[in-house]
């Protein structure tokens, strides 16, 4: 059986605080972009805008949030978390590519 080391943020307390604040800001900005995309879709009813918004959310905010949630709230192994996050990002990229080449 393979034992994986725990993923922890170590170092100066200020570095750890800055790391978590930057992670939180990236998640919030991703969802602000998502909100703007939904508003644009309501005005134009263009399917491409909503698909691009979903792709951006799956590429940035959702994986970061899931990574934090799974590593903090569950005892899921690290490789499972990384695989899940990478598959979500891949799905986001596929949606963006389909959106770009579909139009």
UniProtKB/TrEMBL annotation:
State if Membrane is listed as a keyword: yes
Q: Where are the transmembrane segments?
A: 12-37, 49-71, 83-101
Q: Which UniProt keywords apply?
A: Membrane, Plasmid, Transmembrane, Transmembrane helix
The name this protein goes by in its record: Uncharacterized protein
Lineage here is: Archaea, Methanobacteriati, Methanobacteriota, Stenosarchaea group, Halobacteria
């Amino acid at each position: 059986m393979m034992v994986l080391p725990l993923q922890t943020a170590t170092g100066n307390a200020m570095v750890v605080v800055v790391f978590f604040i930057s992670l939180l800001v990236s998640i919030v900005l991703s969802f602000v972009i998502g909100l703007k995309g939904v508003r644009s879709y309501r005005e134009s009813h263009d399917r491409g805008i909503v698909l691009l918004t979903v792709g951006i959310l799956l590429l940035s905010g959702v994986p970061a949030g899931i990574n934090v949630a799974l590593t903090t709230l569950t005892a899921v192994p690290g490789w499972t978390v990384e695989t899940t996050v990478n598959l979500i990002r891949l799905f986001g990229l596929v949606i963006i590519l389909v959106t770009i080449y579909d139009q």
